[in-house]
Amino acid sequence: MICVSIGRGRHRHVIAEHRHLADNGVRLVELRVDCIQGDVQVRRLLRERPCPVIVTCRRPSDGGHWDRGEEARQLLLRTAIAEGADYVDLEEDVAGDIPRYGTTRRIVSHHDFTRTPADLPALHARLAALDADIVKIATMANQPDDNLRMLELVRGSRVPTVGICMGDIGTPTRVLGGAVGSPFTFATADDDRVLAPGQIGWRRMRDVYRYDSLTPATRIFGVVADPVAHSLSPVVHNAALAAAGIDAVYLPFRVPADHLDAFLAHAARWPLAGLSVTIPHKEAVLARCTACDDLVRSIGAANTVAFAASGLVASNTDATAAVESLQAGMVDADHPVKSGLIGLKSALVLGAGGAARAVAFGLRREGVEVTIAARTLERGRTMAAEVGCRAVEWSARYRLPYDCLVNTTPVGMHPNVDETPFDREHLRPYMVVFDTVYNPESTLLIKQARSIGCRTITGVDMFVRQAAHQFRIWHGADAPAHVMRDALKRATASAKEPV
Ligand code: NAP
After folding, report:
1. Known catalytic residue: 282?
2. CA 335/CA 317 separation, integer angstroms
3. pLDDT tens for residues 219-243?
4. Which is deepest, 30, 274, 329, 492, by most CB within 10 Å?
5. How far is the CA of 388 from the centre of ligand 1 (A)?
6. Nearest-5° angle of CA 287, CA 289, CA 292?
7. Is the pTM value of this prediction over 0.90?
8. Which pLDDT tens digit goes with each residue over 274-312?
């Protein structure tokens, strides 16, 4: 069950939001009464509740806003119990002073905004001993392993336990709680109104992660990256899993560079079935892989890992996706091209990062002459030597004409949508212009290229293709590409943050 936290300043807003949530199928709400300004009318809130509630009144030391003294706070909690609140949240140090009464169930809680304590079982035993119906532990995750310790605690505890790791490293514990036996997880009314670090909106929890349908049998996939919060892969892959009716979930795993090895070593404890791999792990992940495809071998980087009985199998779906996008973009009624990148002799690749490497390898394999224009020339030169092409300085990108221009820099990406890596006056109508940026789909570069009659290919096409190949690797079935495309377009249309 998803419990939605309401943290509003006015009673009428709390009541209206509560009604709205209940009307939309929410079955449990946490009333964060510490957020209410002035006198808290707890009787009124309980009388008008359209669905069960947890009454919570947090002090600043526990991440809350209560500033009216401890005596008044405890009186409020006692009143909530006397008035028949469904649950009341009592912190460890006050739970012993506030006795059980009536039908109100006691959530005994502990918050740590700095770390996840080493001895979680001892902490849990202390809380459970305070006449707890439910134990709630919310701690900051500083490393991926904190998630595992928390999930294992919840899975093994006799007293129903909500165990949450905060921060964006901790997102997996919020999503997998129900699958390991938590009575509920916490979510916010929407993604923008976060009451604790790392919280996500209940609609995302319900519609993207399908929280209530996850069980111990659900297979776990995800994207491993740092940072990861911006990634749209969870939106795209979870939409595909839902459409295909596959019992699996796809999570964002923020794994700092120095924790990748440990994260992969503990894969069986989740257990993980497959991963998308992105910055900064695409090369480092190879050290742990036991097998890889030809493209990984030549590119020296993987974006996909499958956990097989024999070990970790690495693949690279970026290069294939880039070439397929170009092929598809070159086919139309006036220019039928059956296969290969016929007609493309030369390409200028802007950027010398991971995406550039995949694109340049893909193009070279098709016999296209590639030039890399790199802001950091040394990086470009190193890549050029490995790919078998040449590198030029960033300022030299306009010097020669090319059949094809590929942007693999983030220039033009949301929110910097008024920027382009290649001035309009240097575009020519005969050029094929491919922008790997997918948010927005129509970047300034794409718009300007279209306006002068260039053939254009967008990053959305490449993104969906690389994800569809991953789906096939993991699930052995064709991906519902149209579902992935729609999910990506919806997500980019509503994105407020850079992706
Ligand atoms: P990366 O490894 O960090 O490489 C980024 C490259 O862009 C580097 O060469 C960097 O130069 C250069 N760059 C950054 N800002 C620049 C600027 N203002 N002017 C000139 N060059 C600049 O990142 P990546 O993994 O290659 O990803 C790059 C972009 O590709 C992403 O932002 C994403 O939009 C796109 N992408 C799309 C897909 C897809 O499926 N559609 C997949 C992967 C990536 P320095 O070395 O000097 O920093």
Report:
1. yes
2. 27
3. 999 999 999 988 999 999 999 999 9
4. 274
5. 20
6. 115
7. yes
8. 999 998 999 999 999 999 988 899 898 999 999 999 999
Q: What is the secondary structure of 125-145 as a DSSP string? A: HHHHTTT-SEEEEEEE-SSHH
DSSP state of 259: G
pLDDT score for 492: 87
Inter-residue contact 150 to 119 (CB < 8 Å): no
Residue 40: exposure state from Cβ atoms within 10 A (0-12, 13-18, ≥19): buried
Active site residue 318: yes
Among this protein's residues, is 18 annotated catalytic?
no
Q: What is the mean pLDDT of residues 76-88?
A: 98
Phi, psi angles (nearest 5°) of residue 372: -105, 130
Could you count the other beta carbons within 10 Å of the beta carbon of residue 339? 8
Structure-token pair, residue 263:
């994260």
Atom of ligand 1 nearest to the CA of 409: 7
Six-digit token pair at 140? 């900051």
φ, ψ of residue 11 to 5 degrees: the values are: -55, -45
Nearest protein Cα to ligand 1, atom 7: 409
Please report the pLDDT score of residue 496 as a whole number: 47
- How many angstroms separate the alpha carbon of residue 27 from the centre of ligand 1? 44
Q: Quote the pLDDT of residue 408.
A: 97
The closest-lying atom of ligand 1 relative to the alpha carbon of residue 352 is: 9
Residue 334 has pLDDT above 60, yes or no: no
- What domains sit in the chain, N to C, each tagged with a CATH number? 2-216 (3.20.20.70), 238-316+464-495 (3.40.50.10860), 331-457 (3.40.50.720)
**Cα(163)–Cα(142) distance, integer angstroms:** 15
First vs last C-alpha separation in the chain: 30
> Which of 205, 275, 160 is CA-nearest to residue 4?
205
- The answer for 232, left when phi > 0, alpha when psi is -120 to 50, beta otherwise, is alpha
Q: Give the C-alpha separation, 432 to 405, whole Å.
A: 6
Distance CA 237, CA 278 (A): 15
Q: Which of 282, 414, 469, 475 is catalytic?
A: 282
Question: How much of the chain exceeds pLDDT 70, in percent?
Answer: 97
